[in-house]
Design goal:
alpha/beta; Rossmann fold; three-stranded antiparallel beta sheet; globular
């Protein structure tokens, strides 16, 4: 598949289409948004921010980048690429096929998916890809990984600055789902793939951190159904990651919510381990938007 830039952006303030203007983007209402030299566009207005620097910090992004680059979640990325390849192969959607990574972080999963799709044999269809994250630091890191051909946006899943019915497939990997907004930007019959931690995800590290493990809560499906999605399939993706060293355990801890939830004693207990074997357990839900 041939990667091309996605340009169906809308103004996050008034909702007018954005057009290229003076090295940035402008709407009919006069709002202008610069395109950074790194290639991304910040479409998160100040009035929509709940803090000065929403989302993951620069330090958290760096820890996740280093951990993922070491290949510990390679099997997970490969499974995701498999799923998206199947959707695209079976799709009758017109060119181009548009993929959105909603909560893309530093772009690890989207980069892996695009590597697969660009190498599909005998498929000369056009492909457009968008990575959205509320963290400016995450998007900056994503630009360093893969700059050309993609549309990287600093924006919120709750207010995606994309034209209505402009996307064929949304991936939300360990992110915040906004099903009504996803419905708005998806084409009828479009696909949504949600990845969430399963009951055994990182259980070995969690047992070191906490004296009591909370019961697993199934991810919410009711909100998706109410928004007009139907469940196409649910799966569990599991694999083992052996001998995760102390240095990478600290990076893993730093990229998860456990760093802020765990008691000090639990954090120190993880840092004192020379290594751990870890279970990767992901709950996968695949939805289709009703036509």
């Amino acid at each position: 598949m041939k990667l091309q830039e996605f340009n169906d952006l809308i103004c996050p303030i008034e909702g007018y289409p954005l057009i290229r203007h003076d090295g940035g983007w402008r709407c009919a209402g006069g709002h202008h948004f610069d395109q950074a030299k790194m290639g991304y566009v910040n479409l998160l207005p100040v009035q929509n921010k709940k803090s000065l620097a929403p989302g993951d910090s620069k330090e958290m992004v760096a820890m996740r980048r280093d951990f993922l680059a070491a290949g510990f979640y390679q099997q997970l990325a490969s499974n995701l690429a498999d799923s998206i390849e199947i959707v695209i192969t079976n799709s009758c959607a017109n060119n181009p096929f548009v993929v959105l990574d909603a909560g893309c972080g530093e772009g690890y999963y989207l980069d892996q998916v695009l590597e697969r799709l660009e190498s599909l044999p005998n498929d000369d269809r056009e492909l457009q890809a968008i990575g959205v994250d509320i963290s400016k630091f995450a998007i900056q890191a994503a630009c360093k990984k893969r700059k050309s051909g993609l549309r990287w946006l600093v924006a919120s899943n709750s207010q995606l600055p994309l034209a209505e019915q402009s996307v064929d497939l949304i991936v939300c990997a360990f992110g915040f789902a906004c099903f009504e907004m996803f419905k708005k930007v998806l084409k009828p019959g479009g696909h949504l793939i949600m990845l969430d931690p399963g009951p055994e995800h990182l259980i070995e590290m969690r047992k070191v951190i906490y004296s009591n493990i909370k019961p697993f809560r199934e991810p919410d499906c009711e909100s998706a159904l109410n928004a007009g999605f139907t469940i196409a399939n649910t799966e569990r993706w599991q694999c083992q990651v052996d001998n995760v060293s102390q240095a990478y355990l600290e990076k893993l801890l730093g990229m998860t919510p456990h760093l802020h939830r765990a008691p000090r004693s639990g954090i120190e207990a993880v840092k004192s381990r020379s290594s751990l074997n870890l279970t990767v357990d992901v709950h996968v839900r695949k939805f289709v938007l009703s036509s």
